Amino acid sequence: MLDDERQQPEKIEDSEDAVAEAAEVVGSEDSAAEESAENGAEEGNGESGEGEEQQESPRRQRRERGGGRGARAGETAVLEPPTEPPPPPRLYEQFKTEIIPAMVREFNYANPMEVPRLQKIVLNIGVGEALTNGRAMEAATQDLAVISGQKPIVTLARKSIANFKVREGNPIGTAVTLRGARMYHFLDRLVNTALPRIRDFRGLARRGLDGRGNYTIGIREQIIFPEIDYNQIDKIRGLQVTIATTAKNDTEAIRLLELYGMPFIKDTVEA
């Protein structure tokens, strides 16, 4: 019995030592786990930091590029000084400096504003074949646009004519009205470039006047204008050119157009 009692404290001490050792082992395992967790977290943070840096680097580059573009876009553009307006047409300057004084002397106008002036120029091409050929109207419109430098309009029939197989509203022609600078430029090209290219040209007849100061010219071929390329047209077409003035009679209109350079036949008696 005594031996048993002596052995019990030893057993108790041994059990206490075993418990302490187990606690130490558990504590060491917990600390090792904590250390591994901390190390893993640090490694994860490091990897994530590297990933963020890798992600930020292209972003940074894009920002820098974007900043450069923004800087370039934000820079105030250097505006060029406004170009000078185009010079006025040559015939308009001639009208102010030469034609007005000449007309005042010849017709004894009390005021220079009484001198007749150019009002408009109307170009017209009749396209009767458009009733059967749809491309004819397009070709005629293109020719007139090239000649005038302005988009023409398509004229429609006002009433039906059975003999010509024309119904009201059918497209039968194309026309354009020129005013201002384009009017003077066209008249300059007509007088100095187009009319001299007419074969066997001897001058314009004066019978084209209507008694109210307007003059009409009939041109048989549109190729007299240098803007028309012979290789690009579908056929030869004629056109009508009407010059409207503010003249009160044909005498004033003829004299005004002569001063502009219109080559009238001199020996023809006025209508």
How does this structure look, described?
This protein has 271 residues and is of the alpha+beta class. The chain has 2 domains: 1-79; 93-260, 50s Ribosomal Protein L5, Chain: A, CATH 3.30.1440.10. Helix content is 49%, strand content 13%. A 5-stranded antiparallel sheet has the order 2-3-1-5-4. The radius of gyration is 49 Å and the shape is extended. It starts with a helix and ends in an 11-residue tail after the last helix. Residues 1-13 and 44-49 have low confidence and may be disordered.
Outline:
With 271 residues, this protein is an alpha+beta fold.
Outline the secondary-structure elements.
Blueprint: H1 2-74, H2 90-107, E1 118-126, H3 134-148, E2 153-156, E3 171-178, H4 180-194, E4 214-219, E5 239-245, H5 250-260
Antiparallel strand pairs: 1-3, 1-5, 2-3, 4-5
Helix pairs in contact: 2-5
Which residue ranges are poorly predicted, with pLDDT under 50 across at least 5 consecutive positions?
1-13, 44-49
Biggest sheet descriptor: 5 strands, antiparallel
Average per-residue pLDDT, rounded, comes to 77
Percent helix range: 40-55%
Secondary-structure element string: HHEHEEHEEH
Major β-sheet strand ordering: 2-3-1-5-4
Strand segment tally: 5
Corresponding CATH superfamily of the largest domain: Ribosomal protein L5
- Count the domains: 2
The CATH class of the largest domain: Alpha Beta
Strand content: 5-15%
Number of helices: 5
Query: Structural class given helices, strands, pairing?
Result: alpha+beta
CATH topology of the largest domain: 50s Ribosomal Protein L5, Chain: A
CATH-derived architecture of the largest domain: 2-Layer Sandwich
